[in-house]
Amino acid sequence: MTDLLVCIGQDGEQHPFLISLPEPTPDLVTFYVVHSDYPSATPFRLVLDNSGAEALVEAMTHDGEVFYARKGVPDAALLYASRHLGKTVRSHAGPAGDPYANYRWPNADKVWVRLAARGHAVYNVAEDVYRTNGRTSQS
Fold this sequence. Notes:
This protein is α+β, with helices and mostly antiparallel strands. The protein has two helices and eight strands; from the N terminus they run E-E-E-E-E-H-E-H-E-E. It has helices spanning 73-85, 106-117, and strands at residues 2-8, 14-20, 28-35, 44-49, 55-61, 89-90, 121-124, 129-132. Strands 1-2-3-4-5-6 form a six-stranded mixed sheet, with helices on one face. Strands 7-8 form a two-stranded antiparallel ribbon. The longest helix is centred in the middle third of the chain and has 13 residues, at 73-85. The relative contact order is 0.17.
C-alpha cells in the first residue's frame, strides 16, 4: 500500500511525499515516507508499537536526509498513522533521568508542539505525553 502524503512545510507550501506500510506485524508497524521525486532515497521512518489501545511512537527518523527537513513530514506521518490505524498515536514522556529508557527527544517534542498548536494533538501534563486527537487533516 502506497499513498500520497501531502506535507505542509515550514515555508507554508505543500510538499508531495509517498507513504507506505509494507508488511506490518501485529505489534509493530513501520511507515516509510519518501519524496515523490526520489522514491529510491533513504526513507523517513515512523515506527509505532501498535500492541495497545493507543499506538506508541518508538522512533521517527530521516537518517540525515536533508530533503525531509522542514517539510512537515513527521507531522503528516503521525496524522496519517492515526487515521490509518484508527487509533490515537501517543508520544513517550520526556526525559526522566533514565539513560536507557525510551523517551521523547527534543526534535520529536517540536513536532508534537506544532501538532498541538494546530489542534491536532493534546498534551497531558500529568503524564508528560502528547496524543493525536482524531483531527487527521494538516490544516
